[in-house]
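Catalogue entry: protein

Sequence with per-residue C-alpha cells
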Amino acid sequence: MPTLYCSAILFDLDGVLVDSTRSVTRQWRSWGEEHNIAPERVLEIAHGVRTIEVVRLLTPHLDAEAEVKKIEQREAKDTDGVVVMPGAAELLKSLPDGRWCVVTSGTRDLATSRLRLADLPIPGVLISAEDVKKGKPDPEPYLMGARLLGVNPADCLVIEDAPAGIRSGHAGGMKVIALASTYAASELKQADLVVDTLRQIRVRTQDGKLRVEV
C-alpha cells in the first residue's frame, strides 16, 4: 500500500469532490452549438481549466467576461446529476481543520453552490477562477492555496482529475494523486498515483503530518 506524507491536501472540485461532469458537458455542448463550434472540440479542452480561457481560445471575437457569466450561470442552474463523489464526505471528515482547501477553475459562486448542493463543507481557503491571473495548468492556483494555508508547497498533496490540474500541481512542486473520474487512468499517468475512487484514500495524523495511504 503506497504511503505519502504531507502537511495539507489541496482538492480540485469538479470531478474530485463533486460529480458535475454531466452538467458541465451539457452546458459546453450547448454553448459550442450556439457558436457553430463542434462540441467535441470544446470538450477536448474545457475540463480542468478556467472558463474564460476556453472562451478566449475558441471565440476571441466575443466579450469573454460576458460569456463566462452566461455559461457559469447556466451551469449553476443545471443541477441534474450533480452529486457528491463517492468517499468525498468521509475523506474530508478525516482531515483536521485548516489542513485542506479547494482549488477550482470555476468561479467562487459556482464552487460554493456545488459544495452546498453536495452537502460538503465550504473550506476556509477556496481558490477560484477570479482569484488568479493564470489558471491551471499554470501553478499559480495551487501555489496560492498553499500560501493561504501557510504550508510549504513541497509539503502539499494535490488530488486532481484532469491533466491540466496534474501539471499545475507538479509545476508548483507538489505531489499529485489523480482520480480516474473525468479521464481514463491511461490519460493521467503524469500523476504520482492514480486511483479509481476517493474511497481508496485513507488519511490519519501522525507526528503532526498527514499520513496518506492509498
Summary: The longest helix spans residues 21-34. The chain is about 35% helix and 20% strand.
